[in-house]
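Sequence design from tokenized structure. All designs in this work follow the same two-part layout: the structure record, then the generated sequence. An example of the structure record is given first.
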């Protein structure tokens, strides 16, 4: 088995670039996953692993084999197993507690055309959300609600940002995700005859008065500026969460959770 014990190793330097730079992730098509749960969810989500690095003081090769149930899982995805020392691990680890295992994975296509939607889909649209923590939190909600797809419109953050993966606790891998410009996403939804409910302050009806039991896309935007005009203009209905305090908005991930679970409630939580 290959071993790496120097942080000056060229491969380790490449991995550090993947951790730190979106450009490196985009050019290589690779990204880093840390932790047992996240790696297991990535495999279940059909992400291909290229390399698995492990610190034997924290996790043994036997435990890795057990994690994937059978060593053939690793062979099937053609992942190389590399033993690293504590210095290399501490240099690579983005989190303090990642159980001694780090994987290099291949990113997936985010094409709208690759989405596989059921007859009556429920979709969350995220337009221009910048904070990885907010996106990660919404991916957790989407997993909890078992919705059919998440679409990033005019994305401002790299989907494989380590902060996003961490905040999603692996739910990046459990959701079906696509990306496109606002115009492309709106046209996609129209072609699929999916109703658009845009969360916005302008010309809106209270969210709980609407019917989300037919094919539905709920769109949310940034807390600072909200959704862009095309989402307001092309909405089946603009919706709002009534605010009864002193402020007129809430965290976008909280708002998305309220809206999605109202849709799930109306659908009788049939897919949960």
């Amino acid at each position: 088995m290959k071993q790496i014990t120097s942080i000056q190793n060229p491969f380790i330097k490449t991995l550090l670039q993947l951790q730190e730079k979106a450009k490196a992730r985009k050019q290589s098509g690779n990204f880093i996953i840390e932790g047992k749960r996240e790696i297991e969810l990535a495999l279940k989500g059909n992400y291909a692993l290229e390399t698995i690095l492990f610190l034997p003081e924290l996790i043994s090769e036997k435990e890795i084999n057990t994690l994937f149930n059978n060593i053939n899982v690793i062979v099937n995805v053609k992942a190389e197993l590399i033993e690293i020392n504590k210095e290399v691990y501490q240099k690579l680890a983005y989190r303090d507690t990642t159980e001694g295992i780090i994987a290099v994975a291949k990113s997936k296509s985010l094409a709208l055309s690759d989405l596989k939607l059921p007859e009556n889909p429920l979709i969350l649209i995220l337009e221009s959300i910048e904070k990885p923590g907010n996106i990660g939190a919404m991916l957790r909600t989407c997993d909890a609600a078992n919705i059919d797809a998440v679409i990033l419109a005019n994305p401002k953050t790299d989907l494989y940002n380590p902060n996003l993966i961490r905040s999603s606790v692996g739910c990046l891998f459990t959701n079906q995700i696509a990306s496109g410009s606002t115009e492309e996403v709106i046209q996609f939804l129209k072609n699929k005859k999916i109703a658009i409910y845009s969360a916005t302050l302008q010309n809106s009806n209270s969210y709980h008065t609407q019917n989300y039991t037919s094919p539905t896309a709920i769109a949310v935007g940034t807390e600072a500026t909200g959704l862009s005009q095309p989402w307001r203009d092309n909405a089946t209905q603009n919706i709002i969460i009534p605010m009864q305090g002193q402020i007129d908005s809430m965290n976008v991930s909280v708002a998305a959770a309220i809206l999605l679970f109202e849709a799930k409630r109306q659908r009788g939580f049939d897919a949960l």
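The longest strand covers residues 49-54. We note this feature because it recurs in several other targets discussed in the main text.
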